[in-house]
């Protein structure tokens, strides 16, 4: 389950930022997670709780903000919604798509003490 590794990466960022910005506790984390990021939000939330035990983010609330997938269709020259990787263009049915949004995972905001 790579969601565990993702949660560990989040903890590393929190610890590094805690030292750099002088905070000792994280109350809430707003995490942007792209629809095409290959991470299950429920599995990530489960792993998050487990990984944060005993850390500055123990008991922190994880708010996952889903970023929709979009792509540029090289055939019809349009920006189109993309629910899953390798789906065809919903306008022209082409598979010549370049993903432009929805693969990201980033900490958007923190509430800290």
Describe how the helices and strands are arranged:
Elements: H1 2-21, E1 26-34, H2 41-52, E2 61-67, E3 70-73, E4 79-81, E5 97-101, E6 105-112
Parallel strand pairs: 1-2
Antiparallel strand pairs: 1-6, 3-4, 3-5
Describe this structure as you would to a colleague.
It is a single chain. Helix content is 28%, strand content 32%. It has helices spanning 2-21, 41-52; strands at residues 26-34, 61-67, 70-73, 79-81, 97-101, 105-112. Strands 2-1-6 form a 3-stranded mixed sheet, covered by helices on one side. A 3-stranded antiparallel sheet has the order 4-3-5, with no helix packed on it. Strand 3 and strand 4 (79-81) form a beta hairpin. Helix 1 (2-21) packs across helix 2 (41-52). The protein is elongated and about 50 Å long. The model has no long low-confidence stretch (mean pLDDT 96).
Low-confidence segments: none
Report the count of strand segments. 6
Main pleated sheet: 3 strands, mixed
Classification by helices and strands: alpha+beta
SSE string, helices as H and strands as E: HEHEEEEE
Strands across the major sheet, in which order?
2-1-6
Rg is 17 Å
What's the total helix number? 2
As a percent range, the share of strand residues is: 25-35%
Give the rounded overall mean pLDDT.
96
Principal-axis shape: elongated
Alpha carbon gap, first and last residue: 31 Å
**Helicity range of the residues?**
25-40%
């Amino acid at each position: 389950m790579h969601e565990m590794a993702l949660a560990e990466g989040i903890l590393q960022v929190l610890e590094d930022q805690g030292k750099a910005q002088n905070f000792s506790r994280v109350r809430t984390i707003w995490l942007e997670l792209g629809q095409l990021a290959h991470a299950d939000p429920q599995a990530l939330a489960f792993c998050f709780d487990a990984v944060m035990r005993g850390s500055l983010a123990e008991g922190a609330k994880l708010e996952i903000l889903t970023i929709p997938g979009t792509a540029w269709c090289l055939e019809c020259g349009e920006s189109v919604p993309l629910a899953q990787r390798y789906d065809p263009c919903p306008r022209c049915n082409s598979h010549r798509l370049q993903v432009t949004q929805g693969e990201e995972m980033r900490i958007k905001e923190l509430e800290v003490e």
